[in-house]
Amino acid sequence: MRLLKVFFAFILLTSCNDNVEYSQYVSIPSGWDKTKPILFQLEQMDTITKKNLFVMIRNDEKYQFSNLFIITKLEQPNNEAIVDTLQYEMATPEGEWLGYGFSAVKESKLWYKENFKFPQKGKYTIKIEQAMRKIGENEGIELLDGITEVGLRIETAK
């Protein structure tokens, strides 16, 4: 009976991620340097099926802001690039983190591209850099504390 419960738990956990095609994280142990973008290499992406792309952020209590600005660059096989500047809310006005998790680290699944079709076969590179600044300052924050990991997740669109 116990073996049967373990089997069903395994099936349940693995079946929940059937639509996940790619999931990768990069650890940021000592702050996110604005001059060092996070890179994700994608090989031979399907050009027929629509995808949902997400930026995955894990932050801890050292993160000082209620939002997050990032710049993404999707480099295509033909050397063309799609650049987006994105803003995400990370906390409520009361200061509660919007991410999930039971410990001090919260994970946020942030929409990047919805129903996106990769236009051509070949190698893609996605670069993600932080673009945070303090209020009233023109220069960006050199080293952003509190972001512990940045990830990319690609799911088949439903």
Mean pLDDT: 89
Give the overall form.
Answer: globular
- Count of discrete domains: 1
- What's the N-to-C terminus distance? 35 Å
The SS-based structural class is mainly beta
Keywords: Lipoprotein
Pfam family, one: GldH_lipo
InterPro entries: Motility-assoc_lipoprot_GldH
Protein name: Gliding motility lipoprotein GldH
Give an account of the 3D structure.
The chain contains 1 helix and 10 strands; from the N terminus they run H-E-E-E-E-E-E-E-E-E-E. The chain has 158 residues and is mainly beta. The termini are far apart.
Helix and strand topology:
Blueprint: H1 2-15, E1 20-27, E2 32-33, E3 38-42, E4 51-59, E5 67-75, E6 81-89, E7 106-116, E8 124-130, E9 143-144, E10 147-156
Antiparallel strand pairs: 1-10, 2-9, 3-8, 4-7, 4-10, 5-6, 5-8
Which features does this protein show?
mainly beta, Jelly Rolls, disordered N terminus, 4-stranded antiparallel sheet, 158 residues
Short description:
By secondary structure, the protein is mainly β. It has one helix and ten strands; from the N terminus they run αββββββββββ. It is globular and about 40 Å long.
